[in-house]
Design goal:
about 525 residues; alpha+beta; D-Maltodextrin-Binding Protein, domain 2; seven-stranded mixed sheet; four-stranded antiparallel sheet
């Protein structure tokens, strides 16, 4: 059976910006004495955030990427939300869903009196319009890949109740309903604006440049202390960091890793480094040579310069990679040790000598972000030492995704953050290892298929975690999905802002509505 954890139009890869300037330049541009200016600026009650990029389509039900969802975090809400223990609890939904005995029908009631920013009350029609949009093949929403082949129907029972009918049991539906934003029925197809029920409303948007939000006085929950929130795009990492040091913004995403030390030494700033569902997607195509040969795959895997990527690209702020599941994700096994940090070139040469394929070259297709380019450069130099010649092919998001869908690659690599679609997991990462998935990389293993079926369908968390762990180990041992590292998420903030919650960053959430200005100590 095909599985919904796939994407036809996935925009993968973080726009991390160009290479940042060195510490000397940043020191010269220090924000010394900026504290008083920041306190004065805060009198307007506006939280200012610097981000690395922004999409042309800002509709949060079309994409789960952090570039789309971070500016929308305080604007839209979901039927369910994660509590402090990352358990799913009702938010817009009025209580737990009623699930039929055969697990094929979910009935969901909505809280009454919740208002959209235009004054309309939230109704079942809005949830149905959201679902209808994402399951429309012409909409381009990546969410179709999570529900396709499982969701058969969705019906309005009354103004505040809807029913979802499934083809077969789908335990992951609760996860998706905890991450899928609900938008106003008249705005579901809009790409230039957002209409939600959150604590802030979108007042203005300049494509690729900025977002302006104001507090929504009709919000059904606790009000934020901020009058508004402004997001400004700084594609260049150095510019982003200088703006923070000068006090022009209060928080920035994607701190250049080579500048983490400079941030730590600045008394006006706080560095926030956390485990998060940030993955270096790494796939090989088993449909054709050379990666159809297991010995060749193992040679490439054991000669992968993981320590080089960790130290030279991420300045030590990454965990050595094994299988597809990282430290912030369900199924993570800290004791899994298939590959060492340092390359085992002798072992790699032994595997290469046993390979039946005569091919000693391949092409690695990567994203166009600076980080992806740096990772590839380190790895290619290492593979050359065992006599494998590798060509780097950078592709932008759309063409990269098309190559993935068409199986038009030999090795495919990019960075991707999954918290806004899967919370403390990354189910999309695993999809190519399922033999019947449209994204199948050509790997056929009945055990993996069965474990993956269990992950999608079970409603028992322990069973899902157990299956994920087995999948992770098998895919590492067979060198099917073997990322070089699991990067940390790096952000920086002013000391005049309350601290970010590292536990929420494990599911990619900044949640600016819960922050507040503080007097620096």
């Amino acid at each position: 059976m095909p599985h919904p954890i796939l994407s036809r139009r996935r925009f993968l890869g973080l726009a991390a910006g160009a290479a940042a300037a060195g510490p000397a330049l940043l020191t010269a541009c220090s924000g010394g004495g900026s504290g008083d200016r920041v306190v004065a600026r805060h009198r307007d009650g506006i939280l200012r955030i610097g981000v690395a990029g922004a999409p042309t389509n800002i509709n949060p039900i079309d994409s789960g990427s952090e570039q789309t969802r971070w500016p929308a975090e305080a604007i839209v809400e979901t039927l369910y939300a994660y509590d402090d223990d990352l358990a799913s609890v009702p938010l817009l939904a009025d209580g737990e869903p009623i699930v039929s005995a055969d697990r094929l029908t979910w009935t969901i009631k909505l809280k009454k009196g919740i208002k959209f920013h235009n004054g309309d009350e939230l109704r079942a029609d809005d949830v149905i319009a959201t679902l209808d949009h994402i399951l429309d093949l012409g909409s381009g929403s990546e969410w179709i890949t999570y529900l396709l082949d499982y969701v058969q129907r969705f019906d309005k029972v009354d103004d505040h109740t809807l029913s979802i009918g499934l083809v077969r049991p789908y335990g992951l539906l609760r996860s998706h309903l905890t991450n899928l934003p609900i938008t106003h029925r008249d705005f579901a197809g809009r790409r230039d604006t957002i209409m939600g029920t959150g604590p802030f409303r979108l007042d203005g948007h300049r494509p690729g440049q900025s977002y302006t939000l104001s507090r929504f006085d009709g919000y059904h929950g606790e009000q934020s202390e901020f009058e508004g929130i402004e997001y400004t795009v700084f594609a260049d990492g150095a510019t982003r960091l200088v703006s923070l040091r000068q006090g022009k913004v209060d928080l920035i995403t994607a701190v250049p890793f080579q500048n983490l030390g400079a941030v730590e030494r600045d008394d006006d700033l706080k560095l926030v480094v956390a485990d998060s569902p940030l993955d270096v997607l790494t796939y090989v195509n088993l449909h054709t040579e050379p990666f159809s040969d297991r010995e060749f795959r193992l040679a490439v895997a054991h000669s992968m310069d993981r320590a080089g990527v960790r130290d030279r690209v991420y300045a030590g702020h990454a965990t050595i990679g094994q299988g597809p599941i990282g430290p912030a994700e369900l199924g993570w096994d800290p004791d899994l040790d298939v590959f060492g940090a340092e390359r085992d070139l002798d072992r790699a040469r032994d595997h290469l000598a046993k390979a039946e394929t005569d091919v000693r070259k391949f092409k690695v297709t990567i994203g166009t972000g600076q980080t992806s380019k740096e990772i590839a450069a380190v790895l290619v130099a290492g593979w050359a030492e065992i006599g494998i010649d590798v060509e780097i092919l950078p592709l932008a998001g759309g063409p990269w995704s098309s190559a993935w869908l068409a199986n038009d690659y030999e090795m495919l690599m990019n960075t991707f953050q999954s918290g806004f679609t899967s919370g403390p997991a990354n189910y999309l990462t695993l999809a190519p290892a399922h033999s019947r998935n449209i994204l199948s990389c050509g790997y056929v293993d009945p055990d993996v298929d069965a474990w993956m079926d269990s992950v999608w369908e079970t409603d028992v968390d322990a069973e899902r975690v157990d299956a994920l762990g087995k999948i992770n180990r098998r895919l590492a041992e067979e060198a099917v999905i073997f990322p070089p590292v699991y990067p940390k998420l790096a952000m920086a903030q002013r000391v005049e802002l309350s601290p970010l919650d590292r536990e929420r960053l494990r599911i990619s959430r900044i949640e600016p509505q819960h922050l507040h200005f503080v007097e620096p100590s």
